[in-house]
Design goal:
about 240 residues, alpha/beta, Rossmann fold, 7-stranded parallel sheet, 10 helices, about 40% helix
């Protein structure tokens, strides 16, 4: 299983999930480019996350890997499945950014905001970043914060994705079974029920489950429910469209 983290996280941010899945699975927790201990970003080229994933799979000689991605990491998993069909055996998406495309001016504004956010992390101590995380997300398990904090210290200020294609276009030709796990927009989730229904309509290989009480960080906010859904999918049990 190849685990793909979200923006400002690192591979170690999957540690709780990895411990729950390590029996019977070989787990790879990838640091995406510009995150963790991976290579820094190159400002003069468009970052191809699908190609990065393909190189990892090729170099590690992974056979029919299962991809589990969160947020931007979920988009990377989708881009890989679109560009390299029939490689992944299953795709699991945790609250991907199923959002309308941004205008060029909006992309520039968000890149600048992101740079400023990353630079602000660099003025903070480890304790200050951790305290901020606990203040923003008091319901998370204590084990989440060390890696979450480290990710904020490691992220490249140029790591904001320069190109997010229309998600509807890149899921159309998925051949692998795909599971979409999403939360509630009112709690910060990025996927609406309408978008989840569209994903199933566009590609019948998709299944979708909404987890009540969760926002964008589903596994951190509703770990038990998230793992139950994931394990059912991995064990080939039926995963209907539902609200837990």
């Amino acid at each position: 299983m190849l685990l793909l983290h979200g923006l400002t996280d690192n591979g170690l941010c999957w540690s709780r999930v990895a411990r729950a899945l390590e029996t019977g699975n070989d787990i790879v927790m990838l640091d995406a480019r510009g995150h963790g201990e991976s290579s820094r970003m190159r400002t003069y080229e468009v970052h191809d996350s699908a190609r990065d994933i393909a190189e990892v799979i090729d170099n590690l000689e992974l056979k029919s890997p299962i991809l589990l991605g969160h947020s931007v990491g979920a988009m990377a998993a989708m881009a890989f499945a679109d560009a390299y069909p029939r490689v992944a055996s299953k795709i699991i998406l945790e609250d991907p950014p199923f959002l309308p495309p941004l205008k060029k001016s909006e992309v520039i504004d968000r890149q600048n905001d992101f740079r400023n956010q990353v630079m602000s992390f660099r003025t903070m101590t480890t304790s200050e970043i951790s305290d901020l995380g606990r203040k923003l997300s008091p319901g998370w398990h204590a084990d989440e914060f060390p890696e979450w904090t480290l990710g904020k210290q490691q992220v490249d200020p140029e790591a904001w994705p320069t190109l997010l294609p229309r998600w509807q276009d890149i899921i159309e030709n998925f051949s692998a079974p795909a599971l979409l796990v999403y939360g509630e927009v009112e709690r910060g989730g990025l996927v609406t029920r309408e978008a989840a229904a569209d994903a199933i309509r566009i590609n019948p290989n998709f299944r979708a489950v909404q987890i009540a009480g969760a926002g964008h960080n589903i596994r951190r906010e509703k770990f038990r429910e998230f793992m139950s859904v994931i394990l059912n999918f991995l064990n080939d049990d039926c995963v209907p469209e539902s609200r837990l």
